[in-house]
Specification:
By secondary structure, this protein is of the alpha/beta class. Helices cover 41% and strands 13% of the residues. It has an 8-stranded parallel sheet with strand order 3-4-5-6-7-8-9-10. Helix 7 links the parallel strand 8 and strand 9. Helix 1 crosses helix 2, helix 4 packs parallel to helix 5 and helix 5 packs across helix 6. The longest helix has 17 residues. Bound molecules: zinc ion. Zinc ion binds next to loops.
Length: 325
Amino acid sequence: MATVNTVLGPISTDELGPTLIHEHLILATPGGECDALAVPYNREAFAGSCVEALEKAKAYGMRTMVDATPIDLGRDVELQKQVSERSGINIICATGLYMEAMGKPAYFKFRSQFGDATTEIYETFMKEITQGIGDTGVKAGVIKVATGQGEISAYEEIVLKAAARAQKETGIPIITHTEAGTMGPEQAALLISEGAAPERVVIGHIGGNANLQYHTSVLEQGVYIAFDRLGLDFVFPDNLRKACIIGLVGIGYADRIMLSHDYCGDLSVCWLDRPVELPDFATPVIANWSYAHVFKNIIPALKEAGVSDDKIDTMMVQNPRRLFS
Ligand SMILES: [Zn+2]
């Protein structure tokens, strides 16, 4: 029996059910610790808001989410445990590091002057995968990596190499962040050349463009792709994402596609530190963004366009199960 580590312990991959491959409970932008007016973190309040948001998706049959928050974006394993216990949703948490521009690259960049930072990052990932995160006892179930717009920086490259090495050794999947629909093919090629198994890699935020040639150049490398910002019309229009999903399913790629939202809770609640006030124009373009949007709006639209129940099941249930098996 294949098992996967969730924040509440290992479960059979058969128990994953409908899975959202890239979501967040909370996010903290590095630097919040420098804001004298940052609101102190209240885990209880955050947990309540996350449970409430997840219950709306659970009503549509959602069973599992991957919390794609890397180490340096405010990942809180105790919060993940509480939310999983209270909501009944399986949560798979990540080890990994974010892209250079928005993460916390300073530490390992500094250390790279004195030694082999790739190995040190690999050791960090391995500790969190095999022994657990801090003293929580929770083992990471995926490795998250990220690259910036139009390039893979030297720092990002060593993070990807460390991830590929940990993937190869432990078998656990890698999920990625791509920026503005760039570097997907390059990420896949680098990870594979460093020994990662393509069938254990998900290139994320693929719907940052509607370029089918870009999408297929990633798919041809044998990896999965994730249209995992559905509802974020703010970044790229859902209509074009839907057109790409329908087209790619139509030419036989249903067994390589996963759907998710990159949601991080009520923005006024789940972004840590000083509350974010959204500009007026943003509100209508993220009106549908939630953990439930794929189930409530996207799947019905795909069905309307002729995508079969079987293919929906492949994308929502079978692909995540295969990825973690
Ligand atoms: Zn994300």
